[in-house]
Amino acid sequence: MKALLRQRPILIGVVHLLATPGAPRFAGDREAPLRRALADARALLDGGCNALIVENFGDVPFHAETVPAETIASLALAVSAVSAIARRVPVGVNVLRNDARAALGICAATGASFLRVNVLVGAAVTDQGVIQGRAAELLRERARLAPEAQILADVHVKHATPLGRESIEDASRDARERGLADALIVSGTRTGAPVDVETLSRIRAAVPNAPLLVGSGLTIDNAKELLPHCDGAIVGTWFKRDGDVAAEVDAARVKRLVKLFRAFVQRA
């Protein structure tokens, strides 16, 4: 993953798990989340994504910072299965809402290459309540358990309001310089919402040497506008059939965006 973060532009496809056992929307079929995860992962891989990230998107409402054992187990199974078909393509994990310690444990157990942390430093008011960053604990545990796992940290994460008055530039510097994030993520206000180009540009100027990824709302229509200001994107919603976040991944849409990304490399 370290080598991948040096590439430009990076395209990470999201594998949204269906509701897992214990979640309110779990439909009773323990194999269903894994079947969908593998089908979506194959579509993302066939389309040419540089990496994949698995997250328990179907488990709403989310636990704030400590998810139950059955959720961690379900995610570990899914990450392991996706990694088996991904071969040399890096696979990461995001344990929603912000159980970074569980995500790190999954990396240690499965060999996953990276984890996404929604709140690494500072604090945010979210629909799960107040979430606090625990970078000090996480970085020390990473050194012990999975030193090669890369930490991708959100800055002023979506579905949240920062609990403080720091500018997004200062938040970015803190995540990179004090939280020691390996890469930064900037998103819109909610899932599928586009990133403000001016905000993206300001973050790029504040942390010019940090890998910077768009974390929501990148589409075939706005990619050309956003890519000059970042190093890549994490894409979930737009890859789904008709752009419906609840639908399956559409391999044709993946191929269209990958083609645009590759063309951007050639022009750079």
Topology:
Layout: E1 10-16, H1 32-47, E2 51-55, H2 69-86, E3 91-94, H3 100-110, E4 114-117, E5 123-126, E6 129-132, H4 135-145, E7 150-154, E8 160-162, H5 168-178, E9 183-186, H6 197-206, E10 212-214, H7 223-226, E11 232-235, H8 251-267
Parallel strand pairs: 1-2, 1-11, 2-3, 3-4, 4-7, 7-9, 9-10, 10-11
Antiparallel strand pairs: 5-6, 5-8
Protein described:
By secondary structure, the protein is α/β, with parallel strands linked by helices. It has one domain: Aldolase class I (TIM Barrel). It is built from eight helices and eleven strands. It has an eight-stranded parallel β-barrel, surrounded by five helices. The chain has a three-stranded antiparallel sheet with strand order 6-5-8, with no helix packed on it. Strand 10, helix 7 and strand 11 (232-235) form a beta-alpha-beta unit. It is globular and about 45 Å long. The chain starts with 9 loop residues before the first strand and ends with a helix. The mean pLDDT is 95.
Provide keyphrases for this structure.
268 residues, alpha/beta, TIM Barrel, three-stranded antiparallel β-sheet
